[in-house]
Amino acid sequence: MLKITDDITLADWEIELSQIRAQGAGGQNVNKVSSAVHLRFDIPHSSLPAEVKQRLLALSDQRISKDGVVVIKAQSFRTLEQNREDALLRLQQLIQEVLKPRKPRRPTRPTRSSQRKRVDEKTQKGRIKALRGKVPL
């Protein structure tokens, strides 16, 4: 069972963990031992609240497929147990990031001096471009 917050927990059946071989250089053990972990979490079929599901599906994260399945590959540690803990922690952090309330954006107006600077720069650019024309004889 994975605890996200005090109210939200994920059951073990919702998270699919599978062992795979780690990629890259690693010495004698890397090609023989399956120490990396693939974590798969199906968002639409999970027990998360509907609002959390919508926020997760709306994320533009490359770990979330079009079908709404989160795929996390953990291979930074040498042991399977550490990689399993790392994958679960990363899933927990992903869901907790979605739960944080977003600050409302307050639109601001440009200051008078910034407006004046912008107009001055435009007129200066116009003068420079006007000088680029052919020189009359």
UniProtKB/TrEMBL annotation:
Signal peptide: none
Protein name, per record: Aminoacyl-tRNA hydrolase
Family the UniProt entry places it in: Belongs to the prokaryotic/mitochondrial release factor family.
Pfam families tied to this protein: RF-1
Region: Disordered, residue numbers: 99-137
Biased composition (Basic residues): 125-137
Gene3D superfamilies in the cross-refs: 3.30.160.20
Keyword field: Hydrolase
A GO BP annotation: rescue of stalled ribosome
Span of domain Prokaryotic-type class I peptide chain release factors: 21-37
One annotated GO molecular function: peptidyl-tRNA hydrolase activity
PROSITE patterns: RF_PROK_I (PS00745)
